[in-house]
Amino acid sequence: MPAQPSQSPQTASTRVLSIIPPMTQLNTPYPSTAYLTGFLRSRGIEAFQEDLALKLVLKLLSAEGLQALREQVLALPRKRQTPATQSFDEQFEQYQRTIGPVLRFLQGRDPTLAHRICNRSFLPEGPRFASIDSYTVGEEGDEPLAWAFGALGTADRAKHMATLYLNDLADVLRDAVDERFQFVRYAESLATSQPSFDPLAQALVAEPNLIDRTLQALAIEAIERHQPTLVLLSTPFPGNVYAALRIAQAIKAHAPHIAIGWGGGFVNTELRELAEPRVFDFVDFVSLDAGERPLLALIEHLQGQRSVQRLVRTFMRDADTGTVKYQNWQEPDIAFAEVGTPTWDGLPVDEYLSLLDMLNPMNRLWSDGRWNKLTIAHGCYWKKCSFCDVSLDYISRYENANAEILVDRIEAIVKETGQTGFHFVDEAAPPKALRALAQELIKRKLQISWWGNIRFEKSFTPELCQLLSDSGCIAISGGLEVASDRLLALMKKGVSVEQVARVTRSFTEAGVLVHAYLMYGFPTQTVQDTVDALEYVRQLFENGCIQSGFFHRFACTVHSPVGQNPDEYGITLQALPPGNFAKNDVGFIDPTGVDHNAMGRALKKAIYNFMHGVELDADVRSWFDVKVPRPTVPRHTIAKALG
User: Fold this and answer.
1) Is 49 in contact with 19 (CB distance < 8 Å)?
2) pLDDT of residue 6
3) How far apart are CA 365 and CA 404, in angstroms?
4) Are 266 and 243 spatial neighbours (Cβ–Cβ below 8 Å)?
5) Contacts of 9 (CB under 8 A, 6+ apart)
6) pLDDT band at 405 (very low <50, low <70, confident <90, very high)
7) Which terminus of the chain is less hemmed in, N or C, by CB atoms within 10 Å?
8) Does 364 map to a domain?
């Protein structure tokens, strides 16, 4: 543990800047820097934070940024012009006049602008606006149906049109500047399960484009403003990696004396066997798992108080051999109850953009509104699911804090931000901890709105669901995965479909929205399993058990029970390609031979429509483009289970 400022001038001289790289959510800051900054300040260390994801978007989508973008559009050869770039060029003056007001509206600073936006003459309308007038059946990734849009109130209609307006501009940035650009998952393919660093290395030596140059300038401005001795780059997703390394590249060129540390969810899952020396042309240290203990060790090392051999869970490049070394001095992690209160100080909490991509009331929570993100516990109390990375620290090491500490943190955050919305970002919030939290919130008469992720286990009785609702719970998400009792047992999920129906219905009756995470392509899943699962999902929507859902394709990872014991799941793993960079997803051969891509298209199209209340009484076979068997699940199974 570093000395307190009163004991050592070296601690006071350490200045740490934590950076959120592009791209994450635009409606709320990713919480990693808030946690690290709050923790470091609790230990008397000067700490600051910047959200360069938000700053990049606000810079690109400014009057000045749009002028620079138009120059890129005008330089395009005719054959590379797209409907998005042509529409932007033709309506440029209107874009430049409206961009400032639209951003202020989405930031909640000018709500009365909604009336002008809704009259369809204020905003320039690009290709994305075609969806407003379309009544065709959509699918996952499409925009909502016209009838659903018409049911919205003025404020939400305006927010949705303003979101389409920004998506049109994102399309122009992609078509004219960087084909990898997205508001989330920027250049994701460069990092996702890439065994070789070559794609990233090649991208990083390429001539910087408009987006790169803007990001580099923002990084240097942040360095000049805070004068850090250590910069921390937190990359939760593959879509943050390219921009994070561009930031590091700019810092190294501008101020090579600044140490740079790299960590976060992507690092923790994909770089556990890192052996690529070129990574350290950009960063100096790469740390795994919970960041508090490795960070304290690193700071002490940089202060000359700790040898390199006593770094904790940290990769670095050996100065003599040029090879990557992993240092892991054994020290206990900081207890979850002692990590301190996250702080959003330094982040522009009033500048985030509330977007409305999907009109479903549950699904919109992920992009609409600024939520204070907080964890109730570290890790997962269940840690048995066979598809999950249960061997890694963020799942396997379960720790919680008592309700008094949690509500103290909540009160401090409300006081700091002035905002009472909370998203509890646990792997799965424990029922006992949620009960204690709800009781403490009610006891203190603290009025907040909150939502989070749980397991749909039987502990969530109607009485507990109502208590959570009374404490401010507005929504719950949880994994139903493949809605098949056989596959749920194989997954070691610990729930049944009928149990999920009863739990979700209890939440719905308590006025809590429910989102189900769904999966397809699990080992040994047959076409019949898939059809039956969709029938179960249809009935859950039909009976008001769930209001939202999302199907994702199963991916086998090297850290999961499936990846570590494939024989138990009837599959054969494919050999991993050679490489010394990322290692996570692993291909496998499933003897069932099902075309899960064909299945996935139908599942996503079906659930998109279910979320809008469309075709809930139709035969689920109608969603498939190929012939599939009749469901073996009786059409009223869920209704009977609910009594």
Assistant:
1) yes
2) 35
3) 27
4) no
5) none
6) very high
7) C
8) no
Overall residue count recorded for the chain in this entry = 643
CA–CA gap between residue 188 and residue 281 (Å, rounded): 21
Q: Are residues 336 and 234 in the same domain?
A: yes
Judge whether 366 lies within some domain.
no
Encode pLDDT of 184-194 as tens digits.
778 888 887 89
Q: Where are the beta strands (DSSP E) in 183-335?
A: 230-234, 259-263, 285-287, 314-317, 324-327
Please state whether the peptide bond connecting residue 519 to the residue before it is cis, i.e. omega within 30 degrees of 0: no
3-state SS of 227-264 is CCCEEEEECCCHHHHHHHHHHHHHHHHHCCCCEEEEEC
In the structure encoding, which two tokens stand for residue 506, read together? 């209890």
Other CB atoms within 10 A of residue 267 CB: 25
The Cα 102–Cα 113 span in angstroms is 8
Within this chain, do residues 386 and 304 fall inside the same structural domain, yes or no?
no
Domain span at 138: 1-359
Average pLDDT over residues 199-203: 96
**Ramachandran angles phi, psi of 481, nearest 5°:** 55, -130
Strand 314-317 and strand 324-327: pairing? Answer: antiparallel
Closest by CA position to 278, among listed 204, 220, 216, 215 = 204
Q: Are residues 399 and 485 in the same domain?
A: yes
Report helix, strand or coil for 377. strand
What values do phi and psi take at 181, rounded to 5? -75, 135
User: Which pTM was predicted?
Assistant: 0.92
Distance CA 198, CA 202 (A): 6
CATH number at residue 394: 3.20.20
- 226 and 375 both lie in a single domain: no
At 237-248, the pLDDT tens digits run: 999 999 999 999
User: Which pLDDT belongs to residue 12?
Assistant: 43
